[in-house]
Amino acid sequence: MKPVFKTSILLIVGALIGTGLYYGKTLLFSSSIILPVPHAQIAFVNLSRVNTEAQAVKHFKELIERQYKNFHEEILGQEKKLQAEYEKIHYLEKNNPEQAKDLKSKKDDLDRQVSELDKILRDRKGSLNKSFGHIQEEIEHTIREIVTNVAKRRGLNLVFNATILDASVVLYGGSELDITDDVLRELNHKLPTVHLPS
Are 93 and 100 in contact (CB under 8 A)? Predict the structure, then answer.
């Protein structure tokens, strides 16, 4: 093969490869066109305010306090009765040592009652905590639902929580961006109170 012909073939092949690379690159980049970011419609909710001022949250806190107070009083009453029985046995053992053998079965019975009371205490606490967990989930779910509805009505596509662990994280935000009052109003209307699951 003549050198001129060989060089021509190499030039043609090189040109074809170069053209293929150029158009392949163009096709590759044109197929991944970068779309503009949609215009952000932003608002914020002060969840610390919601968790302080909402009727359902206030009622929930009262419910917890009342349940634990009743529970504590009930258990305390039973503990006092058992303690009085122990003191009575201790007094008899001290003043009538010959009755000590007779008091053993009574002492064993009291020990069994203390164990039962301890189990009741753990079970009731677990049951109350589970019920309170369900109520808290219901409140949080309702808040999320309401925030979503308010955002859709206002044409918002981004809603921030203005607080984390009760500390403000918004350095500046115009009042027109704050939808907390709307969320509180709807939450108080939709979930004015909460109840322990039966």
Answer: yes
- Express as a percent the part of the chain with pLDDT over 70: 80
| pLDDT tens for each residue of 111-160 | 888 888 888 888 888 888 888 888 889 999 999 999 999 999 999 888 88
Residue 47 CA to residue 186 CA, distance in Å, equals 14
Q: Phi and psi of 98, rounded to 5°?
A: -70, -20
Whole-number Å distance between alpha carbons of 161 and 150: 14
Q: Which residues contact 65 (CB under 8 A, 6 or more apart)?
A: none
- What's the alpha-carbon Rg for the chain, to the nearest Å? 37
- Check the CA dihedral 58-59-62-67 and report its sign: negative
CA distance 21 to 27: 10
For 12-49, b/e burial (b = at least 16 CB within 10 A) is eeeeeeeeeeeeeeeeeeeeeeeeeeeeeeebbbbbbb
pTM check: above 0.70: no
Tokens matching residue 162: 């203005």
